[in-house]
Amino acid sequence: MPKTLKRDLFPYLLLLPAIVITLVIVAWPLVETIRLSFTDASLKPTENYIGFANYEKIFSRRFPEVIARTFYWMALSVALKMLVGTFGAVLLNSAVPGRTLARILVIPPWVIPIAIGVFIWGWMYNGQFGMISGLLQRFEIIGGPLEFLAYRETAFLATIITDVWIGTPMVTIFVLAAMQAVPGDLYEAAWVDGAGRGYRFRRITLPLILPAIATMSLLSAIWTFNSFDIIWILTEGGPRGGTTTMIIDTYKTAISRFKYGEGAARAVMIVCILTAFSGAYFYLISRFAKKGA
């Protein structure tokens, strides 16, 4: 083989193991899921091709309501995580006593296994012996025990609070790293010119960390959209479907009801929605960046 050809092929040979692993772990399951979505696969030993029947079932039932609830759940959770996480990053980036200890203490919600953290929150939401209901009764805000996970509205809010508690440390660390990368000379020049703290944050910090915030927002949105553990451990999608998101509905259809074909169709819908959402998000961010430039 000529030396030039060897030199050209060498980088691709180095990438070959990663490409093979990606195809086996990602591409093949995705293709298999798409194939299953066009069949009536279940516990039966045989499966038949049924075309778009599974997709027609999706839109003929309550799935549009599940889609809307999923986006609502994701939007509230991501907005709170970004708001609280950014505010926490600003505080941790300030020259205050005990800053190092505060940075260490912000980690546990993210480090603790999700299942353990959610079980603790489930205990706190309990109306009979949970801490939250007990405190509300002690301060006479409520007149008796309140089962947060027994009602649709409070259960929905409870899952959001738990998700924000788990996801905020990651946002805080990510935004804090972006803040620490801002050159200190800019702050010194602005301080010499008499700029206040708020002005420096609006004109220096925020524009420079905006790409990091945009990236973290997208990643957090995808993670939240696909979140399963929190809702399943707390409510299993109840009460009366009040916390059933697309992931929970897909799991119930494919695993609990053994309707693999319908579950695969729902999974394909999730992939399409997330792909479209990511594309629209990047498009809007690029438009915003061009206007800002």
Shape: flat
CATH superfamily placement: MetI-like
What's the Cα radius of gyration?
24 Å
**Proportion of residues in β-strands:** under 5%
The CATH C-level name is Mainly Alpha
Please provide the count of β strands: 0
Average pLDDT, to the nearest integer?
88
In whole angstroms, the N-to-C terminal distance is 50 Å
- Distinct helical segment count: 13
> What is the CATH topology assignment?
MetI-like fold
Main structural class:
mainly alpha
Overall domain count: 1
The largest β sheet comes out as:
none
Low-confidence stretches: none
Write down the secondary-structure element order. Answer: HHHHHHHHHHHHH
State the helical fraction.
over 70%
Features:
MetI-like fold, 293 residues, mainly alpha, 13 helices, 75% helix
Protein architecture, described:
- By secondary structure, this protein is an all-alpha fold.
- It has one domain (55-292): MetI-like (MetI-like fold, Orthogonal Bundle).
- It is built from 13 helices and no strands.
- It has helices at 3-36, 53-60, 63-93, 99-105, 108-111, 114-125, 131-138, 152-180, 184-192, 197-225, 229-234, 246-256, 260-292.
- α8 packs across α10 and α10 packs antiparallel against α13 (260-292).
- The mean pLDDT is 88.
